[in-house]
Amino acid sequence: MVRNYKRTSSRAKVPIDVIQIAVKKVLVDNMSRRSVAQDYNIPFKTLSRYCKKRELLDNEEDHINQVSGVGYSKHKQVFSICEEEQLSAYIKKSSDIYYGLSPNEVRKLAYQYAYELKIKKHS
């Protein structure tokens, strides 16, 4: 086992507040993506991806300060926040009574829950 891990890539090194400022410069101040990416030392493709996320929102001015972090975007999320909390509460409760579920069983449970709620698959 490595005792002192040294990071080899520079992925996800840019703080979210810097990305937020850069996206605002591109969308509100109409600066070019390449120049803003160079000014803030952000990869061009990363800045483009965050700008496209913001452009997809209906009201840009209200959401310009809420640049999301890493992970799935909301349009690919299967469960609503309430449904997700119910599912996690069930999994925690089963763990508390010593009926822990394996990761594979949790995936099966989530599929069954989505099937019962008649949630269609997102593409």
Automatic annotation (TrEMBL):
Any Pfam family matching the protein: CENP-B_N
Domain of life: Eukaryota
Domain HTH psq-type: 25-55
GO molecular function, one term: DNA binding
Assigned GO CC terms: nucleus
Subcellular localization, as worded in the UniProt entry: Nucleus
Name of the molecule in the record: HTH psq-type domain-containing protein
